[in-house]
Amino acid sequence: MSPPDIELISVKNLHKSFGVTKVLRGLNFTVRSGQIHALLGGNGAGKSTMIRIITGGIRKDDGEITFSSSNAAEPKIAVVHQELALLPDLSVAENIALVHAASGRSIVRPRQQAEIAHAALSLIDPQLAARDLHLKASELSMHEGQIVEIARALSTGAEVLLLDEPTANLTAGETERLFLVLRRLVREKNIGIVFVSHRMKEIRQLCDVCTIIRDGLTAVDAAPLSTLTDSEIVHQMGQPAHRDEQRKRRNITTAEGSIMLKGPTGDVLVRKGQILGLAGAPAGPSQLIALLNGTGRASRWSIAAEGWPSHPLSPRQAIDLGIGYVSGDRHTKGVLAQLPIVDNVLASRRIRERRYWVHGEERNECMELVQRLKLKAGSIWDLPGTLSGGNQQKLLVARWLAMPLKLVVFEEPTRGVDIGTKRDIYGLIRTMAEQGTTVVWWSTENVELLELCDEILAFDTEGHAKGLLPPDRFNEDALADLTGMAA
Ligand SMILES: Nc1ncnc2c1ncn2[C@@H]1O[C@H](COP(=O)(O)OP(=O)(O)OP(=O)(O)O)[C@@H](O)[C@H]1O
């Protein structure tokens, strides 16, 4: 007997404004049991605002939201937001058990905590479950924190799981494992899952139907994904069609301005203006990135280049050397939440030049950068908290675009960024590289590395460098093999 088809959440004619900005303008959305539902839309379309209203974080102005009869009084919805929401001073086990105590059960005892957390984490990462239950959340990497959050959401027994770009920072292997778990949950427990993502390949891999939001309205309502082509989806999101350009193969041979990165298992020569991709679990790339951004004095990597120290001793020294850095952790290491957009965009330059104030002409430059990245903001004097997640990410990228740099390091820089803007960012980065800035780009999205980079350095799950992939060996299978992520 097939499981019952239940309308778990029904949203009708939803309206929401912030000040004079109308964000939701009569939105409809339905989540059914037994389905994985992709919620799509460009940056700032209104996806998170709708989710925040459904989960009670903010109030709607108008419209109707109903939950299925089984959970109408207390809808059992678990959300994993783009930003991590773990309590830093609690252990992994306590963080996971917290939601069980909060849902009305008696205080969870330590042994019970450990059991709940172990069972939840084992679903995605058995190694983490065996190793890290007692670590404080603050001691976890972004990537591990993300796994703990997803495990916590999975463990609540929710009828609807809302996952907002959950695979950013997860490696291909973890993503694969997560997808298996999600499919099993849908099949066995007949729950509904809402998957917010800008990664088309993953959407197709995982989801059954999609709703597309465009400027606060429903452009496509729960259509089976098999009925829509990629270009129709992009069109419905209101984004320009993607021209399938042939990747320009660049063969940079000049030795001038090259940097030798000396690693524990071999050296990598990075030429001036080259885009070097880093692939694989963060254990390996993070050592190399720490070396370059001045936080890795003890890194097993070192630099050998004329005029460069073997290890930059601080972030300031790294900036003085002409090294820029966009952190993958935009919440705690990126966005300056208390300062307006204009200060956020100009922050790097002002740190380098040790200045407090924004010059008049810089305001115009900031406006120009905001326009180039199609950053959706009311005004450059607004706080970054008023921006959608993808637009906050663009802010961090904008910070380095106008700087004369020798080298720039990006960690998962297109996290939460919509398809159209990703292409814009790739274009801007290519231009930066063509003008002579060397780019080091770590991403868990292999398709992105293959599209953008000139060479890719792959690391295995233990963090060991496994080899440099030249353009003529660029393909997903080769990358999966080298990173130990072959499915
Ligand atoms: N507190 C706020 N004050 C003012 N404007 C806001 C506030 N919160 C959200 N907005 C605006 O509402 C719009 C929709 O934002 P929302 O976060 O819902 O978009 P989104 O579709 O989730 O985008 P993304 O893909 O970038 O995460 C954005 O233009 C954003 O700037």
Q: Can you characterise this structure?
A:
It is a single chain. With 487 residues, the chain is α/β, with parallel strands linked by helices. The protein has two domains: 7-236, Rossmann fold (3-Layer(aba) Sandwich); 259-482, 3-Layer(aba) Sandwich (Rossmann fold), CATH 3.40.50. It is 36% helix and 22% strand. The protein has helices at 47-54, 92-102, 110-122, 126-131, 142-155, 172-189, 200-206, 230-236, 283-293, 315-320, 330-333, 341-353, 360-372, 389-401, 419-434, 446-452, 476-482, and strands at 7-18, 21-32, 36-40, 62-67, 77-80, 160-164, 192-196, 209-214, 217-224, 259-263, 266-270, 275-279, 302-304, 323-326, 407-411, 438-442, 455-459, 465-469. Residues 18, 21, 23, 41, 43-49, 376, 386-391, 416, 418 line the site of adenosine-5'-triphosphate. It comes from Rhizobium oryzicola. Pfam families: ABC_tran. Keywords: ATP-binding, Membrane, Nucleotide-binding, Repeat, Sugar transport, Transport.
Number of strands: 18
The percentage helix is 25-40%
Briefly note the CATH topology name of the largest domain.
Rossmann fold
The overall average pLDDT, rounded, is 85
CATH superfamily of the largest domain: P-loop containing nucleotide triphosphate hydrolases
Shape: globular
Please compute the radius of gyration using only Cα atoms: 23 Å
Strand order of the largest sheet: 5-6-7-3-8-9
> How many separate structural domains?
2
Strand portion? 15-25%
Distance between the termini: 32 Å
CATH uppermost class of the largest domain: Alpha Beta
Keywords:
487 residues, alpha/beta, Rossmann fold, 17 helices, 18 strands, binds adenosine-5'-triphosphate, transport
